[in-house]
Amino acid sequence: MDERYDNCFVCGKDNPVGLKMNFDYIDDCALATFRLLSHFEGYDDIIHGGIVAAILDESMAKIILHNNIKAVTGSIEISYKRPLRPEREYRVSGKIIRIRKRIIETEAEISDEKHIYARAKARFFSLGS
Fold first, then answer.
1. pLDDT means over runs of 10, the chain (129 residues)
2. How many CB atoms lie within 10 A of CB 95?
3. Is the whole-model pTM more than 0.70?
4. Which CATH number does the domain 24-126 belong to among 2.120.10.30, 1.20.58.1480, 3.10.129.10, 3.40.50.300?
5. Cβ neighbours around 117 below 10 Å, total
């Protein structure tokens, strides 16, 4: 299942200010490559940490949705390793680590061919009964 959320900031195709990212699913991971424009900067030539957080969160949410579960983020912990720069290509991957009743534990990572830029761990809460 890969439901569409056309107004989503990260993946929505109809969001005029969104990232419009496309995700694929390989080896139980949600994967996407992306480039960010300079209007997503915080400091000059550094992508805003909130944008990085949104991408990590979305990759984890996508793999949960791909597994036919609707859930919302309960908590997220992010480690920023290196700054992301505009106009460079990066890859994000998100995966499920464990499902315990209504709690889904996940991890995500942003990298390129040489470095890891950010990692996240999150707990999502299933909206199902």
1. 69 80 93 96 96 96 94 98 98 97 97 97 90
2. 17
3. yes
4. 3.10.129.10
5. 22
